[in-house]
């Protein structure tokens, strides 16, 4: 089965009201939607563009005030997913629940359903500057185009999470990210390659680019990519497609989900199935050497 993925490098530029945000989102989704993808991916916390016209003198409070726009964000994304008949991973958005704020990724379906995946591991910035709360539940979404999971930015740096969702059947990992410098971006990018190899899955990632006049969001380094396992049926360098860093762009690639099934059984190596569960359950032995 051939699946088309579109990943949007979203340019954070200053806006003056909700309409500025909505107009830019409609523009990029239309540009990607014209290619008729099955999945479309937007970056982590790209909705922080709204902070460019909000009072940000108290940053944790400003992040919580973004919850006032959650309803409008959900309705906009739901409408676009239905209009373009696409599974839209709408980046992530700071979301309040029971007085706590989570970095939540939303999956919008062509039929109007809305699903959520909270970020599990928080960066120091999220803990110390935004006072965010961490999620604790992983989900795999069973779609007509394969099973997918969403691991938000830092979460892809923890191989245990990817292994859990892949052992639960995930074929494609979607990684919305937001990084301010090249080394931060590369931590995410290199881990995406590692997770694709370890679990014999496709990994689609994208990032915010541009800048905002807001503390911590003044600069971004980003590049979208669609990454494959490293073996004969796939792209030579394990990259189905990638964008030009730090520009507004849409990256699109077709991937064959059936190749994953074959590769997990007949690949040069089969790391998804070769894991020694009997050994992994053993405690590590510490050997003292003089």
Describe this entry's structure for a reader.
The longest helix has 18 residues, at 182-199. The chain is globular, with a radius of gyration of 19 Å. Helix 5 (159-167) packs parallel to helix 6 (182-199). It has 290 residues and is an alpha/beta fold. The protein has one domain: Nitrilase/N-carbamoyl-D-aminoacid amidohydrolase, CATH 3.60.110.10. Strands 1, 2, 3, 4, 5, 6, 7, 8, 9, 10, 11 and 12 form a 12-stranded mixed β-sheet that branches. It has 9 helices and 12 strands. It has helices at residues 18-33, 59-65, 70-84, 124-128, 159-167, 182-199, 257-266, 271-274, 277-280, and strands at 2-12, 39-41, 87-97, 100-108, 114-118, 141-143, 146-150, 172-177, 202-210, 225-227, 239-242, 249-256.
- Main sheet: strands, sense, barrel: 12 strands, mixed
CATH architecture: 4-Layer Sandwich
| Unreliable segments of 5+ consecutive residues | none
**Any idea of the CATH class?**
Alpha Beta
Principal-axis shape equals globular
Q: In percent terms, what proportion of residues is strand?
A: 25-35%
Here the CATH topology equals Nitrilase/N-carbamoyl-D-aminoacid amidohydrolase
Output the radius of gyration: 19 Å
């Amino acid at each position: 089965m051939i699946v088309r993925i579109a990943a949007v490098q979203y340019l954070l530029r200053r806006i003056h009201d909700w309409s500025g945000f909505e107009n830019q989102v409609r523009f990029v989704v239309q540009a990607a939607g014209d290619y008729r993808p099955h999945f479309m991916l937007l970056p982590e916390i790209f909705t922080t563009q709204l902070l460019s016209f909000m009072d940000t003198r108290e940053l944790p409070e400003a992040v919580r005030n973004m919850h006032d726009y959650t309803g409008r964000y959900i309705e906009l994304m739901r409408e676009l997913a239905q209009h373009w008949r696409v599974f839209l991973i709408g980046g992530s958005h700071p979301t309040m629940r029971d007085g706590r704020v989570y970095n939540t990724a939303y999956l919008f379906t062509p039929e109007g359903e809305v699903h959520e995946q909270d970020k599990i591991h928080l960066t120091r910035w999220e803990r110390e500057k935004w006072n965010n709360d961490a999620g604790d539940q992983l989900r795999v979404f069973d779609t007509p185009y394969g099973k997918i999971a969403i691991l938000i930015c830092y979460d892809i740096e923890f191989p245990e999470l990817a292994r859990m969702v892949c052992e639960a059947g995930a074929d494609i990992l979607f990684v919305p990210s937001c990084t301010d410098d090249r080394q931060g971006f590369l931590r995410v990018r290199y881990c995406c390659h590692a997770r694709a190899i370890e679990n014999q899955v496709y990994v689609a990632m994208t990032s915010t680019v541009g800048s905002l006049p807001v503390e911590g969001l003044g600069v971004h380094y980003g590049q979208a990519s669609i990454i494959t396992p490293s073996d004969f049926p796939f792209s030579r360098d394990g990259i189905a497609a990638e964008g030009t860093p730090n520009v507004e762009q849409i990256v699109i690639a077709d991937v064959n989900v059936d190749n994953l099934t074959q590769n997990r059984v007949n690949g040069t190596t089969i790391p998804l199935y070769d894991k020694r569960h009997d050994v992994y359950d053993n405690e590590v032995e510490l050997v003292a050497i003089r």
